[in-house]
Amino acid sequence: MTASSLTTNTFTDGTFSYLERLQGCFNKTNIEAIEKLANELQQAWINGTNVYICGNGGSAANAIHIANDLHYGIGACGPGKRLPGLRIEAFSANTGVITCLANDTGYENIYAHQLEVKSQKGDLLIALSGSGNSPNIIKALETANTIGVKTFAILAFTGGKCKELAETVIHFEIDDMQIAEDTQLVVGHLCMQWLNSHKPDQIQPLSNG
Length: 209
Description:
The mean pLDDT is 92. By secondary structure, the chain is of the alpha/beta class. Helix content is 56%, strand content 12%. The protein has a five-stranded parallel sheet with strand order 2-1-3-4-5, sandwiched between helices. It has one domain (28-197): 3-Layer(aba) Sandwich (Rossmann fold), CATH 3.40.50. It has eight helices and five strands; from the N terminus they run H-H-E-H-E-H-H-E-H-E-H-E-H. The protein is globular. The longest helix has 22 residues, at 3-24.
């Protein structure tokens, strides 16, 4: 066996192992929680409710990705009528706000403060965290619960403190951060495709200010 074929076989074996672990994360319990999120997002779409999403690092990037899909993709993609998407904002997208709040109030407040300013009772918060123990995500969930914002958390590992705080927990019991981040996007894409194929007949018209 050549070095090249050995490397290829090792990579292939590792790839199938990775994909099997990713698929194995999904079970009846977390799929039911994803369905609940999809239904809540559909109601938010109909009612014009605000949706907020946040995370750190790769999860911050995933928050922006998911927000883009739900802002535009669900209304514009696929067959059938075109509709405005959800009123969704990724708190991780505005570096000016994040760096201001981190510098002036502490990094643990970068999402909680935005919720205090922008959210109201009945809005939705989707928190993305691998460990479930990031102080700024914990504080965001605590703040959202105080305001009356509906809270969802997509978590991995043990779920951490966030598992105790979120009203609806989508938990993947995997001790691998890359797979944890993959599950966040899979959840977002499952919701996006379901919403795109279940467009509401009417949505609350957008205000011009």
